[in-house]
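> example.struct
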């Protein structure tokens, strides 16, 4: 039996399959200079100076910023936070979220374009790539050429620098959780622990893969922010836009020629705006979720306009309403203060005030009182009723304190045997506490009492806790 020839597939089905299985095309972004590029470079330098430099900064003989998970202490310069202070972490995350909402409502994906770690490290890796392999055309020629000594040397050098930077990034990251001087000594002596080794390599690998290879794929497909950013946009949000009324119809022309005399717009169709885009989009096709708002196309287009003798701003930060109504910059900025912005700003100010106020008024002495379940209540010699508790005292300051314990709430109530405790700096202790009451002082029952801790300092600090006293 002869096999039947397969039926030809529908053209639309073939196109769909090709799209579904499309292989990523490498983007060779072109270097650009200009006002927005200078801001990107400044943000890269600022963020990385903070990230790489902060762990090495010392404060009162210790690391200034250290998240010590082993001892559950989090050092931030002169302040120590404990797991009980998780409310401040929650507030900080909420503040970050509202800041993101505010900045996005004002000017789109500013965070993505200038401060996102993915963008920052991609910029650094691309800078290394340009220094080693050259700019866009040189890299295209190198990748399309046959393997030879020159190509191998450049590729090995580039990846060697990438790996070194990625490992240093992983080392710095772990240095926020393990004292970095100790960590450096362990690295030099090859005595790293398994978890430290794992996280240095894991974070380094993530940096190497995301910034060296995946790049725009993270922004396009992995980042959730790209998917819900449109919810925070409105028609007055400043975004990177192309002015089609001015630019179309686009086309080539000689320098110095009036485009209107040839029935053309200001766009010379040079595609440089596409070549400099780190995500490889054409901003002339309108706003796309892949746009990270870096402004590279604005710088590139302005340079072309300067060379052609046309006004700048064919591609610019503008809003939908500004383009539609042909507003000038003053009118455009006047429409930024709309209800959404005012609400976000007010909420952000309140949250920041709560955060700062909470830190400023945070009690440096904390106390927990827990009833000893083994001994609820008993009579002891001397005509006394004794209740036993476990008292936890937490000294969040970096100086030792002597703490005196008092019991209040019933006449004759007293702390038995020991009422003074020594609490070391930035430490906590758990000790038994015995509270007594004369037998004839109160009737049988359960009474609410207060346990108070007071430091014996020139400026005493105190803490208190509520519990019950049982008279059998």
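> example.seq
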């Amino acid at each position: 039996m002869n096999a039947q020839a397969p039926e030809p597939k529908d053209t639309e089905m073939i196109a769909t399959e090709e799209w579904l299985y499309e292989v990523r095309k490498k983007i060779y972004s072109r270097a650009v200079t200009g006002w927005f590029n200078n801001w990107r470079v400044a943000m890269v330098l600022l963020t990385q100076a903070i990230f790489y430099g902060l762990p090495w900064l010392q404060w009162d003989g210790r690391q200034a910023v250290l998240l010590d998970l082993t001892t559950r202490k989090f050092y931030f310069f002169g302040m120590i936070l404990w797991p009980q202070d998780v409310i401040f972490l929650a507030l900080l995350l909420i503040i970050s979220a509202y800041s993101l909402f505010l900045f996005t409502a004002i000017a789109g994906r500013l965070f993505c374009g200038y401060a996102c770690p993915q963008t920052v490290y991609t910029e650094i890796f691309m800078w290394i790539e340009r220094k080693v392999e050259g700019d866009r055309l040189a890299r295209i020629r190198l990748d399309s050429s046959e393997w030879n000594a020159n190509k191998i040397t450049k590729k090995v050098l580039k990846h060697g620098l990438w790996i070194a930077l990625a490992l240093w990034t992983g080392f710095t990251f772990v240095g926020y959780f393990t004292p970095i001087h100790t960590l450096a000594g362990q690295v030099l002596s090859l005595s790293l622990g398994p978890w430290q080794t794992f996280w240095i390599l894991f974070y380094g690998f993530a940096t190497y893969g995301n910034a060296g290879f995946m790049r725009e794929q993270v922004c396009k497909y992995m980042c959730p922010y790209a998917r819900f950013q449109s919810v925070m946009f409105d028609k007055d949000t400043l975004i990177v836009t192309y002015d089609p009324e001015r630019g179309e119809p686009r086309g080539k022309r000689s320098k110095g020629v009036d485009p209107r005399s040839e029935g053309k717009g200001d766009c010379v169709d040079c595609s440089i705006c596409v070549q400099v885009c780190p995500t490889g989009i054409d901003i002339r096709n309108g706003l796309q979720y892949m746009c990270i708002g870096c402004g590279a196309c604005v710088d590139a287009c302005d340079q072309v306009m300067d060379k052609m003798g046309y006004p700048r701003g064919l591609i610019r930060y503008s809003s939908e309403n500004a383009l539609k109504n042909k507003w000038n910059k003053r009118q455009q900025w006047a429409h930024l203060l709309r209800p959404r912005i005012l609400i976000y700003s007010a909420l952000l100010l309140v949250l920041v005030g709560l955060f700062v106020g909470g830190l400023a008024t945070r009690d440096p002495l904390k106390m927990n009182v827990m009833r000893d379940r083994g001994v609820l209540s008993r009579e002891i010699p001397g005509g006394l009723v004794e209740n036993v508790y476990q008292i936890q005292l937490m000294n969040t300051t970096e100086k030792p304190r002597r703490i005196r314990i008092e019991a209040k709430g019933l006449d004759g109530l007293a702390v038995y045997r020991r009422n003074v405790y020594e609490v070391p700096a930035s430490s906590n202790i758990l000790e038994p506490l015995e509270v007594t009451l004369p037998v004839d002082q109160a009737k049988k029952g359960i009474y609410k009492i207060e346990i108070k801790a007071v430091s014996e300092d020139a400026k005493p600090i105190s803490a208190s806790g509520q519990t019950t006293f049982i008279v059998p």
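> remarks
Residues 149-174 form the longest helix (26 residues).
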